[in-house]
Structure formats: C-alpha cells, structure tokens
C-alpha cells in the first residue's frame, strides 16, 4: 500500500524546479521518500507530482489516518529507522541525546531561575551537560527579520551524510552566474510569524565528541589532560585577561552568488564565492557548508565563546533577488565577525573552510574536524593562562558580573529592536501617507482657488501647488530613509542579540563547574576523589574563569567599536535627511500686497512690509 503523509506547513513550489505546491492539512502520496537533500517526491489528489521538503510532512500509518499520538516527520522516521540497525543500548543512548530547541524560548529564563536559587543546583553530579550545544538558534529573530517565511528544519549532520556531502560537491560545470531573470515570483512567500510554526530542530548530540559524555566533570576530573598540539594562550593586558591576537588580521569577502544545480538539474541552489583578504584566493560554498561550519565551531568552542547562529535556512522564495541579497549581507557580517575573533580565525577548522584546494582536501578536512575530541568543555584543556590561579570567591564574582551585564544588554538590545521595528513600520506606512494626504489636499485647494477666476491670486495658487508637490516628495524621502540609517542599526542589534543569546549557556557551564568544585570537599571526605583531584578542579575552574574574562574583553572592545560606528552612521544619515527635507524648494506666495509666506518648511513667517 502506498505511503501517505499529511502536510504540516504550506509550501509554494518554485517555477521550473520540479516542486509541488502543497497546503497545510493536505494528504499526499509519497512516491519516492529518499530523493536526497532533504526532499521527497509526492503526488497530490489531482495526480500532480513534484518535490516537497521532508520536514513539511509527517507520515501517516497504513490506514491513512492521522497519528497524532506519535506522528513523525519523514526525516524523523528515517532517523529512527537508521537507529534500528544498532543495538538496543545504542538506540536508547542516541534517542536520549536528541534534544529540541524552540525558536520562541527566552534563553535567559533558565539562567534567571538558577540565579534566584543562589547558584544551588538541584541536579546531581554529572546530571548537567555542558551548555554549548543548546546555543543553536537561541537568537531566532523576531518579526524584524521574518519577511522570508519558513526555514527548512535543520536535522543536524547525520551519520550517513558523507555520501550526500560528497555527491553535492558541484564543479564549475554545474554553476552559472545568478541573473535577475532567474528570480522567481512565487507568490507563496510566508509572512509574519510563520517561522514559529516550523519543525523543531533536532541535533543528535552523540554525533559531537565531548557532548555525549557528562558535563563539566569531564574536564574538571580528567586524571591527566593530554597536551594538545593547539594551544590557546591567555595573557593579562591593561584591561585584564585577553586572548592573544595574531600579528596580521584578515577579513573574508562574500560575493558573487551563483545558481547551481544537482540531481541532473532537478534541484537548484545558490553558491557564494568567499575570498580571504590575506590570500586573495577564492573558494565556493553553499549555505549548507556555512551551516556545517557553524555546527563545528559551536561544538568545538561553544562552551567558551559565543557562536551566533547563521541567517535562517528557508525553502520558499530562496531564489528571489531580495532574499539572496539579504542572506549574502548577513553571511558577510557573520564571516567578518568570525574573522575578527583571534581564536576562531586561527582555528584549523575555520582555516580549512577558507583555504581548501580541491575536493579531496575538503573531504579530508571535514572528516578530521568531525572527529575532533577537543570539543565542548574539553576546549578549556587547550587554554593556558599566564597568570596565577584565582580563588573561588573571585571566580564567582566575575561570573556573576558577566551574567548581570549580558542579561541587561540583552534586554536593552531587544527593546531597541522593538522600538526600531515600530519606527520602521511607521516610516514606511502611516507617516508617508500623512505627508501624501497633506500634499494632495494642498494641491486640491489650489485647484479650487484657481477656479475662482480672480486674476490676482496666480502666485498664491502656484505656491500652494508647489508646497503640495514638496510634501509628496518628502513622503518618498521618509519611506526610503530607514534603509539608509535604521537598517544598519537594526542589523547591528540583531547581531548582538544573537551573541547575547549564547551567554546563558556559557554562564551555565561556568556555574555548573563552580558547583562541582563546591561539592569537592564532600567528595574528598567520602573518598570519591583525592585531595589532588580537588586541587586540579580549582586550577581548571580558574582557567575557565580566565577564558570567560578574555572573551568578555574581546566582546567589549568589539561592542564599543561596532556601536560607535553604527550610531555615528545613524546620526549622520539623520542629519543629512533633515537637511535634505529643509532644502526642498521653498514655497513662496504673496498673501497680499503687504506680505509673503516665506521658508515654508523651516518656519512659517508672515513678513509684513
């Protein structure tokens, strides 16, 4: 019997892409569940066939009825099927390590709750995992950037992805320069809060070395830390602990979007050209490659360094010129941010992403990065502070200060985003319309006056008409102005919202480590650990504190630079805007033989002669 599936979200097909338009609640027949690349082939009740995202449907039982109690998406079912080949023990372990991250949850809620409990944890030793894995998409954007509909739900780098990655390597023959004519008017772009209804993102954490094991004790209680080849020194500068910055810095230019194809032309994608400024040698990457890099950086550094999410993946409207431009702009900001970080930019995985020379080198580097054991809390084992160990009181105070500041800044950034969004809507909606209404009303009044036949009012009518036209020009200026100033302020705040959304997990990791150290006396008393183990724990939690302080110093220096730049740009553009408005043609009219109406848009003055 043919497999049936129920559509969970509306999906509008891209023209010429062999896709099938489906609506929420519709029942389709799955004709090929394993097309690849997150797609399946289905047939609707009209007999029309086409490709549909796997995450937009859920399989129905053989009787064709909804299985609300345990309905799985096609992607989830495939994941479960892959687990069935393993032993029962491995299956239960993998299932327990899957977690869901909601796009609408406040990442600070758990931190605030634990803070009120005076840092006392109700969980037992080893119950709390390190928190870096939960950073993914905690900064899911609010309505400000939900103009482009559903993201495709991310399933994480699955165990069988190597083949998909290998066959998705697209040579020059499969790509062509993206042109305006290739933009599709789908008419199916979802608006508003449609992101909130997308599938939850599932990441099998047992795929990530260091995350499937217990939490901070993995690092704190390691009998002997292996001496890794990569060392991350921490020095003490004028403002406290800091990372060591490379002697020469570089950026990475993201440009030249190209439309490529795979599966014999059945599926299309956009590929971007990346050019590091220190080598000037370009490489090409798709969005899924950026997503892979994000996951690798999050897994490796997320316990110590905030890794903000990429711009969301989406299916509908992904080839529209406006969307491509916005995504490229945000990918550029993300890559620039990573290039500016002294630890991230010098890491092997980041350098390999930018400097691979051929397909073989890419695959080798990719698989090496996925087998990296120095991930999660073990990243602290690579850090070497050039300073004496800190005592627990000072460590706790430093952590508390970071928590207070980042929480307060998060609130401030969100408030500015909300106000900015409201102002944007007003500038592009009601306010220009008000100016247009005034302009039309003035011109209508001038038309009425001119019908009087009175010969002495020509100058007055002309002046009123010009004033009306000027108001209409001002309406256009007001509508366009947010793109010149508010856009950059909003983008900066959106970026920092992403950063700040990572800190609750980072702080949680540090607080968890402090709790373990506080419990060490009891563990020594019960002979569960030795006094030497306790000393090692204190030393290692001190290393974690130095890392946190070094990261905060980097964060503050970037924050000051970024906000200084963006606020200056905003104010300069605002001044230029008001100068332009006040410089519009002035409406002069003779009110009588004894007066003129002068300087209409600066001040209205009646000058009597």
Q: Note poorly predicted spans.
A: 66-104, 114-214, 587-609
Q: What's the CATH H-level superfamily name of the domain at 395-599?
A: Arfaptin homology (AH) domain/BAR domain
Number of strands: 17
Mean pLDDT figure: 74
CATH architecture of the domain at 395-599: Up-down Bundle
Cross-sheet strand order for the largest sheet: 4-3-2-1-5
Tell me the distance between the termini. 95 Å
CATH class of the domain at 395-599, named Mainly Alpha
Shape: globular
Tally of individual helices? 16
Named CATH topology of the domain at 395-599 = Substrate Binding Domain Of Dnak, Chain:A, Domain 2
The major β-sheet equals:
5 strands, antiparallel
Strand content: 5-15%
The level of helicity is: 40-55%
**SS class:** alpha+beta
Please tell me how large the radius of gyration is.
29 Å
Domain SH3: 1-62
InterPro entries: AH/BAR_dom_sf, PX_dom, PX_dom_sf, SH3-like_dom_sf, SH3_domain, Snx9_fam, SNX9_PX, SNX9_SH3
Membrane topology: Peripheral membrane protein
Pfam family, one: SH3_2
Secondary structure topology:
Layout: E1 3-7, E2 27-36, E3 39-43, E4 49-53, E5 57-59, H1 74-84, H2 88-97, E6 100-101, H3 109-116, H4 161-167, E7 175-177, E8 201-202, H5 217-220, E9 232-237, E10 240-243, E11 252-262, E12 267-276, E13 283-286, H6 287-301, H7 321-340, H8 348-355, H9 359-370, E14 383-385, H10 392-428, H11 430-450, H12 458-480, H13 486-500, H14 503-518, H15 520-525, H16 531-582, E15 589-592, E16 595-598, E17 605-608
Parallel strand pairs: 9-14
Antiparallel strand pairs: 1-2, 1-5, 2-3, 3-4, 6-8, 7-11, 9-10, 11-12, 12-13, 15-16, 16-17
């Amino acid at each position: 019997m043919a497999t049936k599936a129920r559509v969970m979200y509306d999906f509008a097909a891209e023209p010429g892409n062999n896709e099938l338009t489906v609506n929420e609640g519709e029942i389709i027949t799955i004709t090929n569940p394993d097309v690849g690349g997150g797609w399946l082939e289905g047939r609707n009740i009209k007999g029309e066939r086409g490709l549909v995202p796997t995450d937009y449907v859920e399989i129905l039982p053989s009787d064709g009825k909804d299985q609300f109690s345990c309905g799985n998406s096609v992607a989830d079912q495939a994941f479960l099927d892959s687990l069935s080949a393993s032993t029962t023990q491995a299956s239960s372990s993998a299932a327990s390590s899957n977690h869901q991250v909601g796009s609408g949850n406040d990442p600070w809620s758990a931190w605030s709750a634990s803070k009120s409990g005076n840092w006392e944890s109700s969980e037992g030793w080893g119950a709390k995992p390190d928190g870096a894995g939960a950073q993914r998409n905690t900064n899911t954007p609010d309505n400000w950037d939900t103009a482009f509909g559903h993201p495709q739900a991310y399933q994480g780098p699955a165990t069988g992805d190597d083949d998909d990655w290998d066959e998705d390597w697209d040579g020059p023959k499969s790509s062509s320069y993206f042109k305006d004519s290739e933009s599709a008017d789908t008419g199916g772009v979802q608006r508003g809060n449609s992101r909130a209804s997308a599938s939850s993102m599932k990441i099998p954490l047992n795929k990530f070395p260091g995350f499937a094991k217990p939490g901070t004790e993995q690092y704190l209680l390691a009998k002997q830390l292996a001496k890794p080849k990569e060392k991350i020194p921490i020095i003490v500068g004028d403002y406290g602990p800091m990372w060591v910055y490379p002697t020469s810095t570089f950026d990475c230019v993201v440009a030249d979007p190209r439309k490529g194809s795979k599966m014999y032309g059945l599926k299309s994608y956009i590929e971007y050209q990346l050019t590091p400024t220190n080598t000037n040698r370009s490489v090409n990457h798709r969005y899924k490659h950026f997503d892979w890099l994000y996951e690798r950086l999050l897994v490796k550094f997320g316990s110590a360094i905030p890794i903000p999410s990429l711009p969301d993946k989406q299916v509908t409207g992904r080839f529209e010129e406006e969307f491509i431009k916005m995504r490229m702009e945000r990918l550029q900001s993300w890559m620039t941010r990573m290039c500016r970080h002294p630890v991230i930019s010098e890491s092997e995985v980041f350098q390999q992403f930018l400097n691979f020379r051929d397909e073989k080198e890419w695959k080798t580097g990719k698989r090496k990065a996925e087998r990296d054991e120095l991930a999660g809390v073990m990243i602290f084992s690579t850090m070497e502070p050039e300073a004496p160990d800190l005592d627990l009181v000072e460590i706790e105070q430093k952590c508390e200060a970071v928590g207070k500041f980042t929480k307060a800044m998060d609130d401030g950034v969100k408030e500015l985003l909300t106000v900015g969004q409201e102002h944007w809507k007003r500038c592009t909606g009601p306010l220009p319309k008000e100016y247009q209404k005034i302009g039309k009303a003035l011109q209508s009044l001038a038309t009425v006056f001119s019908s009087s036949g009175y010969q002495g009012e020509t100058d007055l009518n002309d002046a009123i008409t010009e004033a009306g036209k000027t108001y209409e020009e001002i309406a256009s200026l007001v509508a366009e102005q947010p793109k010149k100033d508010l856009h950059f302020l909003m983008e900066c705040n959106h970026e920092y919202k992403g950063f700040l959304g990572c800190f609750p997990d980072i702080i949680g990791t540090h607080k968890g480590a402090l709790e373990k150290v506080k419990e060490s006396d009891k563990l020594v008393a019960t002979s569960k650990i030795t006094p030497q183990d306790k000393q090692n724990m204190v030393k290692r939690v001190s290393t974690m504190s130095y890392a946190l302080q070094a990261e905060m110093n980097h964060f503050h220096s970037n924050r000051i630079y970024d906000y200084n730049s963006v606020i200056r740009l905003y104010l300069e553009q605002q001044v230029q805007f008001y100068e332009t408005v006040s410089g519009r043609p002035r409406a002069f009219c003779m009110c009588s033989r004894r007066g003129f109406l002068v300087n209409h848009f600066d001040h209205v003055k009646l000058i009597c002669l």
